[in-house]
Amino acid sequence: MFRINALNPGQAYQRRRAIYFLLLLILRRRHYIEHEELKRVVVRRILDLADREEVNSMAQSMAEHLIQRGKMQGIEQGIKQGIEQGVKLGIERGIKLGIEQGLKQGREQWETGAKRAAILKLLRLRFDGVPDSLANEISSIDDFSLLDSLFEQAATASTLDEINLQNHGGPKLG
Q1: I need a surface site. Which of 20, 60, 144, 145 has the fewest CB within 10 A?
Q2: CB-based contact 123:115 (threshold 8 Å)
Q3: Below-70 pLDDT ranges, the chain
Q4: Are 135 and 120 spatial neighbours (Cβ–Cβ below 8 Å)?
Q5: Cβ(10)–Cβ(23) under 8 Å?
Q6: Residue 146's closest CA among 127, 131, 129, 164?
Q7: What is the pLDDT of residue 51?
Q8: What are phi and psi of 172, to 5 degrees?
Q9: Is the dihedral of CA 147, 148, 154, 157 positive or negative?
Q10: Alpha carbons within 13 A on the beta-carbon side of 79
Q11: Cα separation of 113 and 147, whole Å?
């Protein structure tokens, strides 16, 4: 420190720069508990009162900058962790919802297929020679309520002509 004070006034820039780096070392390399005491040591070694005030101001500005930078890093890290947790939670919920919807659709498709098969089996048991066109028409129906209606018709009809496919766009057989 005495050598810094020994610099002539024309070398003030070098003096300020040396003090600046010394303060940076204190703020970056020493534990934060030591900062105030080490800063006081530096200030006491400065002989010129104006230089002391400048060093105090410089140290305060640097500390505020480092604190602000630390806060910003903390915020960025918090945002990053929040996004990661949100994405993970979103994926988990999406997978769960997808599985539930897939199971529901699978169940509905199975029930629709089973209903079609039951109608065709009932028609084949009750009537001789179910036309392929009627079987194909029934096999293409996806509307479960229409299939329910056709099942009832298949169970109660006296002839194939009484089976009504008009709701599906097909012909009435009678």
Answers
A1: 145
A2: no
A3: 1-9, 12, 47-52, 65, 166-174
A4: yes
A5: no
A6: 164
A7: 67
A8: -80, 130
A9: negative
A10: 6
A11: 10
Return all residues near 153 (Cβ < 8 A) that are at least 6 apart. 162, 163, 164
Residue 8: per-residue pLDDT: 67
- Whole-number Å distance between alpha carbons of 135 and 79: 60
Q: Looking at residue 174, what DSSP letter applies? A: -
Q: What is the DSSP letter of 140?
A: T
Q: Contacts by 49-54 with C-beta closer than 8 Å and gap 24+?
A: 51/15, 54/16
Structure tokens at 91: 């994926």
Residue 158 CB: number of other CB atoms within 10 A?
8
27 CA to centre of own chain: 38
pLDDT score of 114: 96
Asked whether 15 and 42 are in contact (CB, 8 A), the reply is: no
- 153/163 Cα distance (integer angstroms): 6
pLDDT of residue 48: 63
Question: And the tokens for 104?
Answer: 């529901």
Helix (H, G, I), strand (E, B) or coil at 170: coil
Q: Is the pTM of this model over 0.70?
A: no
Q: Which two tokens stand for residue 57?
A: 């101001």
- CA gyration radius for the chain? 43
Handedness of CA 56, 58, 60, 63 (dihedral sign): negative
For residue 2, what are the CA distances in angstroms to 13, 18, 129? 16, 12, 115
